[in-house]
Structure formats: C-alpha cells, structure tokens
Amino acid sequence: MEKLLYRDSRNYVPIDVTKGIDHLTGETVMADKEAPKGYEVMPKCKNCANFKADGEQMGVCEGSMSEPKFFAYPDMVAITCDMYKEVK
Ligand code: SF4
C-alpha cells in the first residue's frame, strides 16, 4: 500500500473535512497529512480487493451477489462489511 493519510487511518477521528484528532497522540492534525508508520488502515472500499473503480469517485462491489453488482465508492467506510478483504 502506498502512503497512509490520516483520513484513511483508523487512528484518526475527523472534526471536519480538513482536520481531525490523532487518537494516539491527542493532537489535532490535517486530514491529508501522512500518518506515522504503523498506524492502522481504515477499512474502506478503496482498500478492498472486491472494489473495482469506475471513474475517480465511483465503483462497483465485485463481492456483491446481486445483478447488477451494487455501487460502491472509494471512501465508503467498510467496518461493518463482512466481505471486506484488505488489499495488502
Ligand atoms: S466487499 Fe464491502 S468493502 Fe469491499 S468493495 Fe464491497 S462493499 Fe466495499
């Protein structure tokens, strides 16, 4: 995986679209800043092996059993998805 941004880390809680709190240090950080090494990846569709991008903002879940496959978008949080398979 390429560099991990705070906004894509599980160790980050957003305050608004630009900033949030680093859970491990308690500091306010920018969402687009690179997270320190060792921070956990937030399960999101874009980090899932079942996600197939269709343009920059949309995609399809290849794990879907329905036809047509259901839409997914890259930043959709997938903590509750049983089919999530993290791309290594
Ligand atoms: S399996 Fe879940 S996390 Fe993966 S792309 Fe489909 S909806 Fe997203």
Description:
The chain is mostly beta strands. It folds into 2 domains: 1-42, Ubiquitin Ligase Nedd4, Chain: W; 43-88, Ubiquitin Ligase Nedd4, Chain: W, CATH 2.20.70.100. Helix content is 0%, strand content 20%. It is built from no helices and 6 strands. The strands form 2 sheets. The chain has a 3-stranded antiparallel beta sheet with strand order 1-2-3, with no helix packed on it. Strands 4-5-6 form a 3-stranded antiparallel beta sheet, with no helix packed on it. A hairpin with a 5-residue loop joins strand 4 and strand 5. The chain is elongated. The chain starts with 11 loop residues before the first strand and ends in a 16-residue tail after the last strand. The model has no long low-confidence stretch (mean pLDDT 94). The structure holds iron/sulfur cluster. Iron/sulfur cluster (SF4) binds next to loops.
Distance between the termini: 6 Å
Q: How much helix is in the residues?
A: under 10%
In the CATH scheme, the class of the largest domain would be Mainly Beta
Q: What is the ordering of alpha helices and beta strands?
A: EEEEEE
Quote the CATH topology of the largest domain: Ubiquitin Ligase Nedd4, Chain: W
| Each distinct ligand | iron/sulfur cluster
Strand order of the largest sheet: 1-2-3
